Amino acid sequence: MPTTVNGKKEIPFKGVNKYKPKGTKTSPHISSCIDYPEDGNKVVKNLREALKKAGLKDGMTISTHHHLRNGDAVTNQLFDTIKSMGIKGIRWFPSASFPVHKHLIKYLEDGTIHHIEGSMNGPLGRYTSQGKMNGTGVLRSHGGRYQAIQDGEVKIDIAVIAAPTADPFGNATGDRGPSACGLLGFALADSEYAERVIVVTDNLVPFPCIPWQIQGNNVDHVVEVNSLGDSSKIVSGTTQVTKSPDRLLIAEYLAQFVEEAGIMKDGFSFQAGAGGTTLAFAIFLKEKMKKKGIKARFIRGGSTKYLVEMLEEGLTDYILDGQTFDLEGVRSMRENTNHVNTSPFTSYNFHGKGNFASMLDCVVLGATEVDLSFNANVVTHSDGYLLHGIGGWQNCLTSKCTILAIPSFRDRIPVIVDEVTTLVGPGELIDVIVTERGIAINPKRKDLLKIMKKSDLPIKPIEEIYNEVNELCGGKPAKPKINKNKVVAVIKWVDGTLIDSVVEVEE
Amino acid sequence: MPTTVNGKKEIPFKGVNKYKPKGTKTSPHISSCIDYPEDGNKVVKNLREALKKAGLKDGMTISTHHHLRNGDAVTNQLFDTIKSMGIKGIRWFPSASFPVHKHLIKYLEDGTIHHIEGSMNGPLGRYTSQGKMNGTGVLRSHGGRYQAIQDGEVKIDIAVIAAPTADPFGNATGDRGPSACGLLGFALADSEYAERVIVVTDNLVPFPCIPWQIQGNNVDHVVEVNSLGDSSKIVSGTTQVTKSPDRLLIAEYLAQFVEEAGIMKDGFSFQAGAGGTTLAFAIFLKEKMKKKGIKARFIRGGSTKYLVEMLEEGLTDYILDGQTFDLEGVRSMRENTNHVNTSPFTSYNFHGKGNFASMLDCVVLGATEVDLSFNANVVTHSDGYLLHGIGGWQNCLTSKCTILAIPSFRDRIPVIVDEVTTLVGPGELIDVIVTERGIAINPKRKDLLKIMKKSDLPIKPIEEIYNEVNELCGGKPAKPKINKNKVVAVIKWVDGTLIDSVVEVEE
Lengths: 507, 507
Known about the structure:
The structure is a homodimer.
Chain A: E1 4-5, E2 8-9, E3 43-44, H1 47-53, E4 61-64, H2 74-84, E5 90-94, E6 96-97, H3 105-109, E7 113-116, E8 119-120, H4 123-129, E9 137-139, H5 142-150, E10 158-163, E11 165-166, E12 172-173, H6 188-193, E13 196-201, E14 221-224, H7 231-234, H8 245-260, E15 269-272, H9 276-292, E16 296-303, H10 305-312, E17 316-324, H11 327-335, E18 339-341, H12 344-347, E19 362-365, E20 369-371, E21 376-377, H13 393-396, E22 402-405, E23 409-410, E24 413-414, E25 416-417, E26 432-435, E27 438-441, H14 446-451, H15 462-473, E28 482-492, E29 498-505
Parallel strand pairs in A: 3-14, 4-5, 4-10, 5-7, 6-8, 9-28, 10-13, 13-14, 15-16, 15-19, 16-17, 17-18, 19-22, 20-25, 22-26
Antiparallel strand pairs in A: 1-2, 11-12, 20-21, 23-24, 26-27, 28-29
C-alpha cells in the first residue's frame, strides 16, 4: 500500500470508525455580483468559450457527473475541446466513467488527461489495470467523493455539469427535457465547491428552471448544445428482472430472510439497487408486504418502475432517491413530491452530521468476491482486473442489516474466496451473505443467528458454502499474474483513508 | 462613521459596485458520523441540554431566524435558558427582531446579551437609539446577512432554528405544523455555516421530514417543545389592503406607471411586499394584466393570498418566495410546486455568482425618508429613532426598475427631505418615487423620462413634490436632538462595507 499517491501523502485505513478528520471544510473563493451579468444571462456561445472564461490551464482538475451513464456525449466532447485548446495534464474527476468514455483513452495516451480519479466501469478500468495510465487511479464511493471535495482533498478547478434542463442563470434539473436523467445529485458537491462551474444543457428554458436541483447561484457559465447524448442509454425504458433460476432463488431467499428476521415491519426502510436479482427481491418483498398489510416509511432508490409502483400503491410513504434507473423513475420524481431527490451529501457523506445510510433497516448489495471473514470486494474480479466502480456500496454498509446477494460462482469461478483481490468493504460491516446455495450470517450478528434459528432457510456457516462451491468449481480461483510493485489504483474508505490498492495485471 | 465596530475593523462604503471581496468563503469544522447517532435520532431532552452539548460558552455568537415574526416564543425561551445557565456576553445574531423580543431588554441590561447584530423592529431599536446597549448594533440586509456569514465576517457558534415541523435527524420545514410559517430561508446560512445547529420544533415527525428546507445533515441536536409561539402572530389569517384614499391613489399610480412604462409585458417579473399600499398595487396590476391578457414569468414574494390568486389563476408561472405573510401563502407553498421556496442565498447574496434581485423587471418598496438625490432611508425616522430593519430592501434596489411607494408625509412630517437621517440606499439605484402628490423619476433614468413623456400621470421633478409638501406641513422635519459622538448602530451595504451609522437620540 503506497503512502503517497499522485504526489500527495495519504492516511492508511485505521479501522471502521477509527479515523476522525481535523480542520475545517474547504471553500471556494468569494464571488461578487459585480462579475456576473445583472440580467442573469450567463450563456456563452460554446464549451470552448466557457472553458476559456473559466481560466482553463494545464494540470487543472475537471469534474463531471455520471447521471447520463453510458449515453453521455458531453464528457467526450469536453475532452475533445480541451485537446483542441492544447491543454495538457488534466486530472479528470468524474463521479464515474462508463464504456462510452473509452473515447478518452487517446487523451490518456497523449497526455491531455494525466489520470482519472473516479470509478472506472469497463474499458478505462481495464486500461488502468494494464498499467498504462500515467498517474494512479483513485476510487471513492459516492459519499467518499463528496467527503473528498468537502474536506479539500480534491480541489475542483472547473466542474462541467451536463443538465437535461437549465435556465440562462444556471439553475438546472435532471427531471425533464429530452435527455432527462432524473436528478443531478452526483454533481451537487461539484457545484458547491468547484472554483468555476459550467452548466451544459440541450434544453434551455427561461428563468426560473424549476426545480433547481443545481442552483444557478453556484454557476459561472451556461452552454447550450444540440444534445447531451443518447437518451436511450441515459435511462433505459425497461429494467430487466432476472430470469436466471439461481438468481430468482437468491431473490426469494432475500425476501424471506427480510421477513423472518423481523426487518419487514410497519415503518421500515430498505435499499435495493437495479440489478436483476435485487429487482426480483423488491417484487417478492412487495408481495409479502401487501399480504401482511405492511407499509415502509421510505425506500431508497436507485429507483425503478418497481419502486415507483410501491410508492403509487401506498406501500411506502417516500422514495428517497439517489439516481433514477428508468423512465418511470424519472416521471415519478418529476410528478410526485414524495419521490425525493437526494444527494451523496444527505445520504452518504461520512464527514457530515450523520447521513441517511446508517438509518436504513436493510440494504441489499452485490459483490465480486467475499472472503471467509465477510470482507468484500466490488471493484476487481478474481482475475485482477479493475472493472467496476464503488458507487454507494461502501456507504451503504453502515445500514442496520447489510446483505450481500451473490451467486456462489460466476463463470465457474467461486465468489467466496480465501482472500479478496481488493478489500473494499470490511467484513465487520457485512451482516449476511445470500447465495443460491445457502445463507451465511456473520458470526458477529448473534442476534440474527438467534432469530433465524428456526428458519427453513438454508442458513449455514460461510465455510460450508465455500467448501461446497470450491468442490463444484474444481478448486479456488486461479491467482492472476500481477506486478505487485506497480500500484495502478487505490481504494479509499468512506473517511478518506486508504483501504487497499489495485496492482498491474500482466497479460 | 467609525472605522472599528465592536472591536473589529470595518471597510467604509466605496460606492455602488466598487468593492470586491478577496479570499475564500468561510466554513465550519469537518464533522464525522462517528460523533452522531447511527439511527439518526438527535433528539435531546431540552434546550438546556442541547446548548450544553453544543458547548455554549460566554461571549459566543448565537443566531435565530425571524420567520415566526411577532409570534416567536423560542428566542425568548432560548435566552431565559442561557441566563439560567449563567452565561454572559452573548452576541445575538437574529435575522430580525420584533416587538415580542422586548423581553430580552433585561438580558441586554444584565449582560447576558452583549449586543445585537440584526434588524431591530420596534422596542429593541428604540432601546439601542437611547444608547443603552453595550455594544454597537449592526444592521444588515437579508442578503448582507447571508454575505456576512458566508464571508466569515460573522462566525456563528450556535444556530437555534425554530422549525414548525422536523424529524429526529434535524430535517425541518416551515410549510406545515401548528406553527407553520411557510419557509425557513432566513435560517439557511445559519444551518450551513454555524459550528453547531440546534433545531427546535413543536411538531416532531418520523424521518424523513419532507420537504427538508433545512437539511438534517447540517444539524447537531433536535429539541421538542410544546409550542413555538403564538401562531396567530406568526402568520395572520388576513393581510390588510389599505383603505386610505391617499395610499390607494399611490397604488393606482404604481400600477399605471408599471403599465405605461412598458414593464408589464408577457414574461415580466415583479416584487411587491405585504404592506397595505403594495397589496393594493398588486390588485390593481392584476386587473390590468387580466385585461391585456398578460402573464408574468415569476412574482417574488413575500407571498400573500393576492399573489397566490395570481398563481392559481394562471397570471404567473411561478412565485419565488422568500417569506409567506399569510395562511394562503403557507398553503400554496405546501401544495403548489410552482410556489417556490427561495432564500437570501438565491435571491439576495451580493457575494454570489449573481442573484435573483437584479433580474427583476420591477420592484416596489417603501422608505421612511428620501432626499432630493433619491438617496433613501428605511431604518430610522426623522426623529432619529432606529425602528425598522432593512429586510431585503437594499438587495432589491438592483432590480431593473426600483420604485419607492411613499406617502409624501407621515404625521405631518415630510418624507422627502434635504438629507436622510440614515443613508441605507444610494440614490443612483432608486429609479422612481411614487407619492400621492406626484411621481418623480430619477434624472439618471432618461429612458423612463422619455417613455413617460406623454403620460397622464403627475410626473414631476422631485423638488416640486418636496416644495409642495414642505409648504403643506409647515416646513422641514425638526432636527432630532442627537449625540453625534455616540454611534449606537451601523448600517452595512450589501457588499459588507459600512454605509452609514446611527447615533444616540437624546430625550
